[in-house]
Write a structure and sequence with these properties.
This protein is α/β, with parallel strands linked by helices. Helix content is 18%, strand content 33%. The protein has 12 helices and 45 strands. The strands form 10 sheets. Strands 2-3-4-5-6-7-9-10 form an 8-stranded parallel β-barrel, surrounded by 5 helices. Strands 12, 14, 17, 19, 20, 21 and 23 form a 7-stranded mixed beta sheet that branches. Strands 27, 29, 32, 34, 35 and 37 form a 6-stranded mixed beta sheet that branches. α6 (134-151) runs parallel beside α7 (185-199) and α10 runs parallel beside α12. The protein starts with a strand and ends with a strand. The structure holds (3S,4R)-3-hydroxy-2-oxopiperidin-4-yl beta-D-xylopyranoside. (3S,4R)-3-hydroxy-2-oxopiperidin-4-yl beta-D-xylopyranoside binds next to loops. Residues 64-65, 163, 250, 285, 333 line the site of (3S,4R)-3-hydroxy-2-oxopiperidin-4-yl beta-D-xylopyranoside.
Amino acid sequence: MKKTSLLSLCFILSIALQAQGLKDYLPAGKYIGTAVNNQYLQGGNNVNGYNDTLISDFNCIVAENAYKMAYIIPNRPADPFNLTIDDLSASQLLLVDAMIDTANNNNMKTRGHAFIWHSQAPSWLTTDAQSWTNQQIYDFAESYITVFGTYCKGRIDEWDVVNEALNDNGNGFRTGTWYDNVDDKQDFIEHCFTVAHAADPDADLFYNDYSIELYKFSQGAVGNVKNGPMLQMVNTMLDHGTPINGVGLQSHYISGSDMTDSTYITLEKTIDSLNTLGLFCNMTEMDIRICGGTTEADLDKQKDEYRRITEIFLENDNCNSMLVWGITDASSWIPGVFSGCDDPLLYDAQMQPKPAYYGVLQSLMIESGMLSGPYNFEPQVIPGKIEMEDYDYDAFYDNDSGNTGGVYREDSVDITTGNTGYVVGWTEAGEYLTYTVNVTVADTFELAFVYASDIVVGNYSEIELLIDNVALDENVMLPSTGSYSVFDTIAIDSLILEKGKHKIRLNIVSDSANIDYIEFSRADCNGVRNGSAYIDDCDVCVGGDTGLDPCIIRNPYTVMTIPGIIEAENYDEGKNGVTYYDATSGNQGGEYRTDDVDLGTTDDNGGGYVLGWIEPDEWLEYTITIEETADYTVTFRVASGLTTGNFDLSVDGETVISNLAVPNTGGWTTYDDLVFNDIPLEAGEAVIRIDVSGGYFNMNYMQFEIIDEETGIHAIYGDKLLITPNPFTDELQVEGLQINQAWKIYSIDGKLQKKGMSDRIITNDLKPGIYIFKTNDQVIKLIKTK
Ligand code: XIL
């Protein structure tokens, strides 16, 4: 592998990709819908983006339970055969309205589910109807459909008038229903349709059921189970001129066992035979449950199942709606009803789109011709190879029409074979290709272009590479390899990529190369750093022994500016070996911070914390802001009971004080100033570093001051304290002192005049003149007038 110029490329990528919903890929007149739960209708608080997803993906809505009779008319009415609107539950009608409101606000088609069903019927009805006559059952049903249908009149596009009226074993109508006492179920069902039509003449009326599209072969007899009775029932309705517009296939499938080739065939046949009758055939409650535990392979299988059903939905004109029975696996009815089965929907329990979602999307894109996003609908993966021929569907430009190489794809990009497979060739200035990629781990990546080129020696085929619309600092230069079939590798490092989806774009700046792929590999950060072996265990590193921190893990612990005090305990946040080095694990003093640096408390100036238990070879770094370019005086506040202490101070890697010996200050709690003058520092951000060569001392702080050489007056920095009045006469008031913060007042010749800790200072004993007021972190010039 050849390495060309090392580009210093640092990108933190955060631009989110624009999302489009499923509904945006639908051809006109088609609807993709979902059932919404009561929680949503009651004003659910957009759990995991539920409400947003509903609106962005779907243009058709049905209530999973809210329109069911058990809730609409939960209490026994005074006269069940002459219902009025007052017999319907007012609170339930609010949920009915809430669904319609959502639909109106978002241009959605509405389904009403369902007027007549044996299940989720009010318990008073199942009891009472047992003793009702044929006529009474007709009267009740007519009255219910009329009152509820009229309430919703003009607001529901499709009604399931009758749900699940056929027997599972294929021998006609279901028994064991609250309407069992009717003499003729066919006639009863037809009457319900007639009444529904009268209540709302503009609504399309559906018969809805499960397994009516499946042709089941049982007990050796060749035949179908519910499909035949369903066709017979609707044929009879049509013969009688009964107003039916369509049949709803509930489509509650079991992944795998239900989804055989014959299922897809019989599904299409059913849709087709209803089409011949002039009826719609919609998927009204689709879910595809996975039973016996869900593996990744199961999710992929389910994706394909959803993809195929969606394809059938799109390919058949009389199938104008496909609804899934809920948005997320978090709230599907499946696990509660089919034990051992789960994960039937398009979004997982955390509301992330599942492979199934992409299965639906894939069919939508292909059928609508609105192909977009990654080739084959799966982003290419980093770390890994980005194959040039797998550019995104909708984001490329090629100068000429047609695929000059004639292989692999059929748009205008020129693809040929070469090296390890397909390559993009005949690249010309002005062309571009785009790739949606999925970065599985945030890291620094090295990029390698694998290409062949026969341009003039000394020239380059130049490519601008953009990540999420941001171009790299330098373009990629591909020199001739001598032939369009001799492939070579050009490596570029290093590029930081965050985890997640990104867009990569290649702008061809100059002709021409055959590009096979770009390989993104994680930069290796293992190596030697500061003399010791370093293992890459961080997410983002800059690779090799570059002298830089290999891990980009550094945060200033607090804002620290100079002139001012740098508290020793406020070393940068990061980790051992990166922003500090401590030889022993754990904080031996147990104070203030919880990493390996050893911190204790002190009563010395300013109180607070001190660095202790310092051992040879330890070091600490501090990110600071230098406010002014000047020569600084630095005062290290240290204590030691030994004379072994010794350290260096460096600024941005340059040693500015070396081998500063720490004297015995008289004990571990007796602090003294170690003063060092004339350290030139430039304004701006810097990392200062203490490198310990001789151990065993404590450090409280480092104070950086600018001292005027002529007057000896320390630069004035007093923004933390307000001293009034100034100029003053006989009394000063100090605002902003910390508890136990000591102050001292010096005369201009450096003699101590006063010291104390109170915020009121009597000064009538001072002569008129200039004074310096000092605390551990503030210096303020005071003037006494008389
Ligand atoms: C289910 C709902 O999803 C559940 O919340 C409820 O407890 C029972 O009913 N066929 C239908 C739907 O027509 O109304 C059913 O909905 C699922 C089967």
